[in-house]
Amino acid sequence: MMKTQIRRIVVDSLKPRETSTIELSKSLCDADGVGEVDLVVTEVDSRTETVKITIRGQQINYDAVMKVMDDHGATIRSIDEINVGRAPAPSK
């Protein structure tokens, strides 16, 4: 049986300015299934930053990504791109 896996996701997010982009990126990279994170600040105002985050991995755990975002006070405004694929079930 084949299982669908998230391999890449691009999110538009709003985060507090005091939340470090470095710490957020590192924490996201530590989430289950994540192998690489790109974060670009696209807009800054007095209290928040809008960021575009690209997350890549072989089997990204979206719930774990959402928890990291929440733990850092960031919200996902939209999912702008997603790549999913099917992988064969492990051999017995």
Walk me through what this model shows:
The chain is α+β, with helices and mostly antiparallel strands. It has a single domain, classed as 2-Layer Sandwich (Alpha-Beta Plaits), CATH 3.30.70. The chain contains two helices and four strands; from the N terminus they run βαββαβ. A hairpin with a 3-residue loop joins β2 and β3 (48-56). The longest helix has 10 residues, at 62-71. It is elongated, with a radius of gyration of 14 Å. The two termini are 12 Å apart.
Give short descriptive properties of this protein.
92 residues, alpha+beta, Alpha-Beta Plaits, 4-stranded antiparallel beta sheet, 4 strands, 21% helix, elongated
DSSP strand count: 4
| The number of domains | 1
CATH H-tier superfamily: MTH889-like domain
Structural class: alpha+beta
> Helix content range of the residues, please?
10-25%
In spatial order, strands of the major sheet run 2-3-1-4
Name of the top-level CATH class? Alpha Beta
Secondary-structure element order, N to C:
EHEEHE
CATH architecture: 2-Layer Sandwich
Coarse shape? elongated
Q: What is the number of helices?
A: 2
CATH structural fold name: Alpha-Beta Plaits
Q: What are the segments in which pLDDT stays under 50 over at least 5 consecutive residues? A: none
Mean pLDDT: 94
How big a fraction of the residues is strand? Answer: over 45%
Largest sheet features:
4 strands, antiparallel
- How far apart the termini lie comes to 12 Å
Rg for CA atoms: 14 Å
